[in-house]
Structure formats: structure tokens, C-alpha cells
Amino acid sequence: MDKDKEMSGKEDKVTESLVDKQESGMDASAEEKEQKPENTSEEDVNEGTEAPEEEEHEEESVDYSNFDKAQLLKALKEIVSQQNFMRGDSLVQEIKSHYEEYYSKEKELAQQQYLADGGDEEGFDFRGADEDREFFATFQQFKDKRHELIRELERSKEKNAQEKNLILDRLRGLVDGEETTHSIETIKKIQEEWKKIGPVPHSQNKNLWASYNALMDRFYDNRSIYFELKELDRKKNLESKLELCDKAEALSETADIKEAIRSLNELHEEFKHIGPVPRDEQEALWQRFKAASDAIYNRRKEYYESQREVFKANLELKVKLIERLEAFKAFKAEKIRDWNTKTKEILAIQKEWEAIGPVPRESGKEINKTFWGLFKQFFQHKNQFFKELDEVRHQNKEKAEALIADAEAHIESTDWKETSNHLIQLQKDWKELGPLPEKFRDSLYGRFKKACDTFFDNRRNANKETNKAFEENLAAKEAVCAEIEAAANGKEDVSPEHLESLIQQFNEIGFVPRKNMKDISAKFNDSVNVYLGQLDLEGESKDDFLFRLNLNKLQADPNSNRVLNKKEHGIRKQISDLENNITLWRNNLEFFASSRTADKLKDQFEEKIDKAEQEVDKLKKKLSIIREF
């Protein structure tokens, strides 16, 4: 459909769809016509109900030219309140046209006054009155409601098509099944259900109706035993169609041509769904119904002829819009913002185009082709710009794939700390990527996230296993502590060797959870002290044992090697200091003269040297003990 027809006459398409269904719904193939000769009249109905295309421009004759702005707003609100969104569009467009004349004049006067007061032409901004904003808001409400109703009608047509297909399936089962006494009743119910279903999409209507007629033919032809009932049914159908002829002829007295067309379409729909009539009555019946229909169509044609001046004015408005659109023909820009700005401008022109009513039919096709050709050309240039922009997105895609490959290469790594830092850096790099192609964005991120999540899940699971082992070590160390205390309290097996073996057993157990390290160490020391209290050790052997015991306890420290080295270094320093002092003291002895006072000092120095040498021996023994560890 031409764009101008689509915007100005959508409500008329509802009426046209009914006529279209009559045009195509009963157009059976030649083979089907031979099978159903009694349906000649119904096929003629389809040809006779063809509505002239001028129906798209059908409008009510209401003169709004003398209405002021308040009256136009009131008229618009009345149409909206009546929810006459389909058939009221032509009236609304006319109301809007008159209102915009007032609005444009007010704007022009305001601009002249603004310039007369010394204002700058570029700084002029006409906001209009509250009444203007209310009018255009009400007009937009009408358009939104009307578009929603059209979408609902299309959804309803699809649903009706599904329902008719279900009825056809039932009808096929009835036609192909065995004859029963209830077949006629069932077929009548199916006819009633079919008749009650509303319009279907135009593309499906012809096939649905042809299938329905063919199945009905088969039903009647294959069941000759019900011939008399069929003839009786045909006579009843004749009576019903004669009533429809009377109603169609009465429509010629209806003053409102739009209402007459609507009622005629309903009569055609009903005429089409009534079953076949006796063959000898078909032609005369159809000619009578067609004559009544032609009388209404002729009146409509005369009405549209009277509207040609309006259509010519609409044509002039559309020609001016095309001239404005020419400025967009060679537009080029390097920034998205510039393209978006021009897009808003061209879409505003499109709205103006859609608001203009129909044009003469002989000019409609060419003017639509010109307008939409320029419109399309602009968006082709815009698409080329974004195509080049897509190249940048493609480069970002290659960078993303490199990050994914890097992340996937570290999935199985067990170097938890270094790999964690590396993946965190990759995640930061990912955030700094530019836009990615829409088609691949989710899948690329999914792959990257999966690689990172897999590694961190592995690390989490490994930590769980380690923590479990630490808990088991803690329980084992607590058991050793309990054994040390029990042995100390029992006193039977108390011995240095036994204590050393228990300490060694404690030291051989692995790490415990970090939160329990201090507690288990304190508990261990307390247990060992309890045990030591039960040992009977004296003198040097006790000192050596305690020193060796402390070294054994150090084995449980993760930093035992460093601690032992530090302790060894400290002992060596003590030995060195003592040996230096001994040498110094020996040198000093040589300077003392022979006297009672000097002899007393010599004895003191000799005593200090003796104690120092004993201490050196003890330290060297400790040093030898350290080397055992």
C-alpha cells in the first residue's frame, strides 16, 4: 500500500479487508467449481463485492473551517472520548489541519512582535498556550490508541486464522469419517462456528475459504442419502439470502454513505457464510443482491469525486515536503551526533507527511516513490557510516578473542597467586575494550567469563581440600597434646626419651588452619611444661635436655630453619665475645705487680676466666646440639 494511504486511511482498511475477503475467499479452482456447481452465486458474490480503491479516502462530511481553537479542541476530545479510533482518523486529521492554521498564524504574529521589540530572529522560541499543548497531547493520544487498535486487529486476525484451521481439521474428519445420524447437526454447528469467527489475514483468506468450500462440497456430494435434507437446507438458505437482499436494498435510503458501506460489508459477510441455495434461484438471487450493492458503491464513487479538490491540496503539501527532503540527499557527517540530529529532522518531516491526507490516485504512486526514495537514500548513507564504524568494533573483537585465548590458557594452572593476579589484570583489560559487535558481544563475554570462573573455581576447590587436611592435622596435634598430658599425669612412662618422641610426633604433623595456630602452639607448650614438671632432671643434663627439647619444639614452626640459624648465630656471637674477654683478661693478668692487693685482683680475674671458659664449653655443646637438627 502507498505510504500516504497507509497513514490516512488505515481505518478504512478494516472495511476494505472485509471486501477483500469476499473478493478472494470463494475463488475456488476450476476443479472445485465442477464439484460444487450450486455455489456459482457465492463465487459471483466475491466478484460483485469488489470495493473501489477510493474507499481508502472515505471521510465524513463535517465542516470545521469556521471552528475556533476551543471548538476544535472540544471536537477532538469528543472523538477520543467516543473511542472512534478507526473511522475517526479523517475527521481528526481535518481538525488538526485547521488547528495548525491557527497555531501557525499565532506563531507568525508572535515572531513579528518579537522582532519588532528588537529580538534576534535566531533566538525566537514560540511555546504556545496551554490550550495548544493540550490539543497536541490529545492528538498524540488519539494516534497512539489508533495504532494500538490496528495492532490488536492484526493479532485478532491471526487468532481467527488458527481457529479456522482447527475447524477445517474437524471438518476433514467429519467428511472422511463414517456417516452417522448426527452428521448434519455437526456440519451445521461447524458452519455456525465458522460464521462467527471474524476476519483473517488477507494472505490466508483465499486458501482457507477454498478449503472450506471444497470440504462442504465433499460432505454434500458424498452423502446422497441426505439429499432431501440438503434441499430443505438450500431452501432455508434461500429465505435467509432473500432477507439480506431486502436489507441491502433498504440501505439506499441511508443518508450516511459511510454507515451504508459498513452495513453493506456486513451483509456481504453474512451472505457469504450462508450455505448454498437451489441452483435455479442462484443467478437471479445474486443479480438482485449485486444490484443493491452497486447502488451503494455508485453513491460512494460520487462522494469521492467531490473530494478531489481536497486531494489536490494534499498533493501540493506533499510536493513541498519533497522539496525540503531534497536537502538531505547529499548529507554526510563524521560524528554520530550529527547523524542523529539529521535523523530527528527527517523523521519530523516524515510525521508531517503522514499527517497529510490522501492525494489523487493518479499521482499517489509517483509522489510516494519520490518521497520514500529520498528518505531511503539518507538512511543508506547513514548505514554506510555505521558500517565503517563496525570495522572498529571488529578490531575490538580481535582484541577480545586474544584476551579469551590468554585466559583459557591459564584454566588448568595451579600457581594460584600469580595466575590470579594475571587473570585480574585481564579482566581490567576487558573492561577497557571498546564496543563489540552486537552479534558476538554476549558469546565473547560468556567465553571469557567461563575461563576466569573455571580457574577461580579450581582454586576454591583446592583451598577446600587444603583446609580439610589442615583440620585433620589440628585434630592430630590436639590428640598428641592430650597424650602428653595423660602421660604426665600417669607418671609411669615419664622419661626424657618418651617426651622427645611425643614432641617429634607433634612436629611431624603438617600445618593447621591459620586461625588455630596460636591456640595449638600454646596448648602444646602447656602440655610439655606439665610433662617437664614430672621429670627428675638436675644440673647440666637438665640444661642440655631442656635446650634439646626447645629445639625439638621449634621443629613445629614453619620458619624453623630460619629460627635455628638465628639461634646458632647468636650462640657463635656469645662464644666469640667470651673468648675475646678471656684473652683480654689473661693479658691484663700480666700487668699486675706482686702485692696482696694485686693477688686478690688476680684471683678475681682467674675466677672470671674460669667461669667464662665453662660458659664457652656449654655454648659449644649447645652449638653441637643445634647442628644435629
UniProtKB/TrEMBL annotation:
- What spans are recorded as compositionally biased (Acidic residues)? 40-62
Give the record's keywords alphabetically.
Coiled coil
Region (Disordered) spans which residues? 1-66
Q: Name one Pfam family in it.
A: DUF349
Q: Where is the composition biased (Basic and acidic residues)?
A: 1-39
Regions annotated as coiled coil: 139-166, 595-629
Q: Which domain of life is it from?
A: Bacteria
Specify the protein name: DUF349 domain-containing protein
- Organism this protein belongs to: Cyclobacterium lianum
